[in-house]
Amino acid sequence: MEQPVDHSGQILRPAVSIGTARAVDLPDVAGASRLLRGADMAMYRVKTGEQPHGYLATRHDAYTPTVHGRRPGRPGTHLPVG
Prior knowledge:
The protein is of the alpha+beta class. Helices cover 24% and strands 7% of the residues. The protein has helices at 32-47, 59-62; strands at residues 5-7, 10-12.
């Protein structure tokens, strides 16, 4: 993922961010969407420096409220649902 990619004469530099949630750590979390929400929150907490690298999602992360189905603070959450 670190290798630049030439696309139509433009050099693209891909990057990856990964959040981690383990179902075994969250046995009372219902469904894959909650695990995904937890992983997204874990990634966000590490990226903002709130938690250290290696942070695993907690039940609180999995049940973080959403705005229009997205994590609060993500681009577009301030827009009305259309």
